[in-house]
């Protein structure tokens, strides 16, 4: 092998040149998005066509151009910085956090023990303590950053099970008859976590929701009593702040009181809606979250940083990490001697990305004020958009929004024999194929609705009025 290949691969000047080109390209792209230039927000291709294209690029024998590759990837990706994007719950990251992502990746200080990532380990502690302060948990609380809400929810569920009646599952294994009470509107990651833990279908007790898609708190005690009568031990209750499908917040204070009364671990899935705690206008939505034993919150949803970055928070740091205590002589100390700076003993991940760098930078640069403005702007827009829907005769809401998520559908004034589910599904498909606006589709009470998640601070009500007009035009074509 030619030794010069390494020199070429690690050439600082080539890196500098490619980096400048990429930053210039991204800056121009971001300006085009913010100027609301016409572009397909979702440049849709069928999966087989997309795979065929990239396989052709991969197998081509011509000279590989890094600049052309960057342009190609950018052109064929979803443009979430464009204000017409109202699709999945992914935020357009701040430019600063993208630069932080670069230095995280380049230095590659994967975290497991302190000596592997000293700066990022310390930054993570600072960031976690900052978050805990908003919960009122700073003195006794603890937590860590991990790769996404699904992993975060699993981490919290493992801690809840380990803490149940001081049951050492790590040493003694699981026993039958353990279960978690969850909203029927909970994110699928909760059920997945329970089943990964080996508790099976009986380990998931689904709590019905009311007409506003919130847990029916008045049913909790009867459901718990029924479980106990069947020999099932409920070790955790999970509340939504907010749900993924409809964006509705559970009554966290009532759930917290129920769990306190029955001595059950209370976990809040606040992956999306937790940042409401930073908003004077909307923090009432998370009243009672301080009563939880654990919570997850995603920085990549409503806190303006790239995916994946999730915080798992605990009210009491003394016991939760026992779920991961083991002896790995080259990394971990003995049980009961975990240090905050050695993350491998506190979470599922061993080597993990130094994700605290971008969060630390974002907070230092902008503080909680930017998050508050972002929450206010997007939640306000959801209410304005819901008002537009209510004022029409040919659209309907699934439910009034709590958050920045609005579920709605087209409903002709004289529907006749039109299948509304098929009609709205076809409308969404046509929007997707057209690409000018991006919405997703969801199923609510076995009916098809379109769902707008307002994730871009530059989206405005005028754009949404235009989108409704396009939906009407598509509907006319579909019904003719």
Description:
It is a single chain. Helix 5 (95-107) packs antiparallel against helix 13 and helix 6 runs parallel beside helix 13. The strands form two sheets. A seven-stranded mixed β-sheet has the order 1-7-6-5-4-2-3, with helices on both faces. It has a four-stranded antiparallel β-sheet with strand order 8-9-11-10. By secondary structure, it is of the alpha/beta class. 43% of the residues lie in helices and 12% in strands. It contains 15 helices and eleven strands.
Order of helices and strands: HHHHHHEHHEHEHEHEEHEHEEHEEH
Shape field? globular
Helix run count: 15
What's the number of extended β-strand segments?
11
Question: How would you state the average pLDDT, rounded?
Answer: 91
Strand order of the largest sheet: 1-7-6-5-4-2-3
Helix content: 40-55%
What's the alpha carbon Rg, rounded to whole Å?
Answer: 24 Å
- The fraction of residues in strands falls at 5-15%
**Which spans have pLDDT < 50 for at least 5 consecutive residues?**
327-332
State the end-to-end CA separation. 66 Å
Largest sheet: 7 strands, mixed
Structural class: alpha/beta
């Amino acid at each position: 092998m030619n030794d010069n290949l390494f020199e070429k691969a690690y050439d600082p000047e080539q890196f500098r040149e490619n980096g400048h080109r990429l930053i210039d390209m991204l800056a121009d792209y971001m300006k085009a998005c913010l100027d609301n230039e016409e572009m397909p927000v979702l440049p849709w291709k069928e999966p087989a066509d997309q795979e065929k294209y990239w396989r052709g690029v991969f197998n081509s024998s011509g000279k590989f151009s890094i600049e052309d590759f960057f342009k190609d990837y950018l052109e064929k990706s979803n443009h979430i910085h464009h204000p017409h994007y109202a699709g999945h719950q992914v935020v357009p990251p701040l430019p600063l956090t993208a630069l932080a992502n670069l230095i995280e990746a380049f230095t590659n200080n994967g975290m497991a023990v302190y000596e592997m990532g000293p700066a990022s380990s310390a930054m993570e502690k600072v960031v976690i303590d900052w978050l805990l302060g908003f919960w009122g948990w700073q003195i006794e609380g603890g937590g860590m950053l991990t790769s996404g809400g699904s992993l975060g929810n699993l981490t919290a569920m493992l801690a809840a099970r380990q803490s149940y009646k001081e049951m050492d599952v790590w040493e003694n294994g699981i026993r039958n008859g353990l279960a978690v009470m969850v909203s029927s509107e909970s994110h699928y990651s909760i059920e997945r976590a329970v089943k990964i833990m080996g508790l099976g279908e009986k380990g998931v007790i689904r709590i019905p929701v009311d007409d506003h898609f919130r847990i029916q708190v008045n049913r909790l005690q009867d459901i718990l009593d029924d479980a106990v009568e069947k020999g099932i031990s409920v070790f955790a209750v999970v509340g939504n702040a907010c749900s993924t499908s409809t964006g509705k917040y559970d009554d966290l204070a009532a759930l917290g009181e129920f769990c306190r009364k029955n001595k059950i671990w209370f976990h809040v899935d606040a992956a999306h809606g937790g940042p409401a705690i930073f908003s004077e206008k909307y923090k009432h939505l998370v009243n009672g979250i301080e009563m939880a034993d654990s919570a997850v919150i995603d920085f990549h949803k409503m806190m303006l940083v790239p995916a994946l970055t999730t915080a798992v928070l605990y009210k009491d740091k003394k016991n939760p990490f026992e779920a991961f205590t083991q002896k790995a002589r080259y990394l971990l100390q003995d049980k009961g001697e975990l240090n905050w700076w050695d993350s491998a003993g506190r979470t599922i991940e061993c080597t993990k990305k130094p994700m605290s760098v971008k969060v630390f930078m974002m907070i230092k640069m902008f503080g909680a004020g930017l998050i508050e403005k972002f929450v206010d702007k997007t939640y306000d827009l959801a209410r304005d958009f819901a008002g537009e829907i209510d004022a029409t005769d040919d659209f309907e809401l699934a439910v009034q929004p709590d958050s920045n998520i609005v579920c709605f559908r087209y409903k002709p004034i004289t529907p006749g024999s039109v299948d509304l589910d098929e009609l709205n599904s076809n409308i969404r498909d046509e929007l997707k194929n057209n690409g000018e606006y991006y919405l997703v589709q969801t199923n609510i009470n076995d009916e098809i609705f379109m769902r707008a998640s307002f994730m871009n601070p530059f989206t405005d009500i005028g754009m949404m009025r235009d989108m409704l007009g396009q939906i009407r035009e598509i509907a006319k074509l579909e019904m003719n």
